[in-house]
């Protein structure tokens, strides 16, 4: 079976398993800090996807948030970048607004992206160069918008950081309004659908954006870090995505005027680390 169809099928099945057990008690653990949670469902979902991919395609490689492939250093061959539950805090607190996110890359080239909004049974998917869909419906090319008449999304945390507030506060202030959804993958999906015009955040890991990246690019979004550079799919990155016009406005009028500060933050926090 074509990799794309296989991926679609195992993601939909994994989502159904989560939906069917949504009322069961979950085991919650903390990771790097008290607000960084992981549940047995995050781990079981990654394990399930890992086993299915490995038994069908033993030569493929998998980088997953919950432990698989942490030694992967290059993009050769077929690489699956997997976030079994993106939006774990939403999963724990709301039992909705979370997604399974997978990006598949072949020798470093984009192949396919999937963001599955599990509780709403909405599969955002894209085949690089061929288009993007929400379930069966093709997603439309994005229309240009400007910040003052746009809804954008970001994580409010960045407004509270002394160094970053000088960049983030004016953006939030000058937008029509700002949303915080709590799932980076769904933030990408929302931009792809055109219900938000841009998404900006200071730090995402490869599994947060690998799937969404391919979907938004298929509808004409511009995807860079906050210095206007291409994302490296094996490293943590800052993120700036949006339709062409708003991306240009945000990059040139809000981010690049702070280039020395952003360069410093990127060098200290991201480059060479993931
Ligand atoms: C998180 C979510 C959240 C984003 C964080 C991510 P997780 O992923 O995408 O929206 O702000 O940076 O870590 O941990 O729920 O998979
Ligand atoms: Ca996590
Ligand atoms: Ca994530
Ligand atoms: Ca996750």
TrEMBL record:
SUPFAM superfamilies registered for this protein in UniProt? Carbohydrate phosphatase
Which InterPro entries does UniProt cross-reference here? Inositol_monoP_metal-BS (IPR020583), Inositol_monophosphatase-like (IPR000760), Inositol_monophosphatase_CS (IPR020550)
According to its UniProt record, the EC number is 3.1.3.25
Tell me if Hydrolase is a UniProt keyword of this record.
yes
Q: What class of enzyme is it?
A: hydrolase
Q: Which UniProt keywords apply?
A: Hydrolase, Magnesium, Metal-binding
Catalyses:
a myo-inositol phosphate + H2O = myo-inositol + phosphate
Superkingdom is Bacteria
Is rRNA processing found in the keyword set? Answer: no
Question: Sorted alphabetically, which PROSITE patterns does this protein's record hold?
Answer: IMP_1 (PS00629), IMP_2 (PS00630)
Q: What name does this protein carry?
A: inositol-phosphate phosphatase
Q: Which organism is it from?
A: Mammaliicoccus vitulinus
Task: Write the lineage as a comma-separated list.
Answer: Bacteria, Bacillati, Bacillota, Bacilli, Bacillales
